[in-house]
Design a protein that fits this description.
Blueprint (H helix, E strand, L loop, with lengths): L1 E9 L8 E6 L2 H11 L4 E6 L14 E12 L5 E18 L5 E6 L9 H21 L7 H4 L5 H11 L4 H9 L3 H36 L10
């Protein structure tokens, strides 16, 4: 299905099912959101690939349709919004550039993944690794209960994992663009293996440095001289 919608460039990757808080101060984006709020509250969110302003090359082909679930104006006259990702889209063409970008997009159909024993085993392994990853990053207290309760649908699980990974934006965008659920989960398994190993090594060296620092801080009368 194709439709036209306003496009919001952001410096992050929004996955379906995830929420994205934003503070909007740019007049162009404020106009976009004001029009969306009096309309259907729908906006297309896509990763801003470069720092050059308003260049067609800035748009990633695949983005996420988002619904505005909260909006308010703060004391600095900025718009504070919370967007919730719904479905992925592919950008076909830009049809308007003023007063903000509007694109014609093709919406990916909402679908549920086929559950096989192999995928179920993979999903169980991923879930355990994700909790270990969250533990190592020490972010459990920053996540809501809904974030900690992993979905049973495998594609939705893949999107949830993608949203929680702290990896380069290029890598997150590649996950968003992945079509096959098996490929998505296998790629996330590879990333989690890598990141857990990195975090474990970092935690080990932090503890090592703390022990060395503690030993060097001993009172002089307790030091042993050779």
């Amino acid at each position: 299905m194709r439709r036209e919608m306003p496009l919001l460039l952001v410096e992050t990757v929004l996955f379906p099912g995830s929420k994205l808080p934003l503070t909007i101060f740019d007049e162009r984006d404020k106009k976009l959101l004001e029009d969306c709020l009096v309309g259907d509250r729908i906006v297309g969110v896509t990763l801003h690939k470069s720092r050059s302003p308003f260049d067609l090359k800035d748009f990633c082909d695949v983005g996420t349709i988002a619904r505005i679930v909260h909006a308010e104006i703060n004391q600095e006259n900025q718009i504070v919004v919370v967007l919730k990702g719904e479905q992925r889209f592919r950008l076909i063409e830009i049809i308007q550039s003023e007063p903000y970008w509007v694109g014609r997009v093709e919406i990916f159909p909402a679908r549920f993944s086929f559950i096989s024993p192999q995928l179920t085993h993979l999903a169980n392994r991923l879930s355990a690794m994700l909790y270990r990853y969250i533990e190592l990053r020490e972010i459990a207290d920053k996540l809501s209960l809904a974030d900690m309760m992993l979905p049973t649908d495998l594609l939705t699980l893949g999107y949830r994992i993608g949203s929680l990974l702290d990896v380069p934006l290029r890598e997150k965008q590649e996950l968003l663009e992945t079509e096959d659920v098996n490929e998505l989960l296998l790629r996330e398994l590879e990333i989690l293996n890598r990141e857990i190993k990195r975090l474990q090594e970092s935690a080990f060296w932090q503890q090592f440095v703390k022990r060395i620092t503690y030993k060097r801080a001993l009172p002089i009368e307790r030091a042993v001289w050779n």
